[in-house]
Amino acid sequence: MAYQIELRHLRYFLVVAQELHFRRAAEKLCISQPGLSTQIKQLEEGLQLPLFHRDKKKVSLTAAGHYFKEEAAFLLNHLERAKTQLRLLGDGHLGELRIGFLGSAMQRVIPDLLVALKKQNPKVRTSLEELSNRAQIDALQRDRLDMGFVRLKRVPPDMVLYPVYRDTFSVVVPKSHGINAANFKGMHELAQEDFILFSQAYSPLYYDTVMSICEDAGFTPRISHKSVHAHTIFKLVENTLGIAIVPTALQYGFDLKVDFIELKNIRQRAVLSAVWKAQNRNPVLPPTIELLKKLHD
Predict the structure, then answer these.
(1) DSSP 8-state code for residue 248
(2) Which UniProt keyword terms apply here (predicted)?
(3) For a Cys-Cys bond, which of 42, 102, 214, 251 suits 3, CB 3.0-4.6 Å?
């Protein structure tokens, strides 16, 4: 007997796929374990193939189960997204735009966009989430974000990458450091320093660019600490635990005992780009893209 697949089957399947344990999944769903097993069996019969390998010691996903986990999450996310948009429309809003960003985008680009968007479309709601480059791309692919702000040279072929801000880099040193903007002669002077960088996983392009800045000066930086937050990096610099190289725009909004030395005469630049999925169906996205282009053309 082939059962009709219903939304509850997808929700139950996802919890089991995450837990890989029927008892824990049943407790999480507040249903009986036999009842959950029956629902999963109905789903597998409806799909006409097994989604789980089961034995006395463990539960694991089949190849079909791995694939269906992504698809089920995608479908349920779209349903929740549609419900949210409908609620907003019912409340008199035009919809919601979900934006991911790197910290440096918050200095100028995103505030300018949000102010202009509010002026142009005051009935559009926005939500913001600070995420790494990789996490933003993943969320965009899963339609959990509508737009991101990243530092990447390339993105998947189904996405659009639009540069919005080209920044210089600056060296960050403690105020007590002997080198400052007035007497700085070049990066070669800093070859023996410890460096504090954003994590390579957080922004591979930034990491590689900083390495190339140092290599152009004839040395490989000695990295003492890594972080994903600018404030943490600046605090470590303030406490003389190393120096840093960051996009110049990051100097604003912090009140710490550090100095910024802008590297105007190097070839490297910090390029911030907006990114979105070409087939995104959120009706709020196209006018936002046009507004973004007007602000940065």
Answers:
(1) G
(2) DNA-binding, Transcription, Transcription regulation
(3) 42
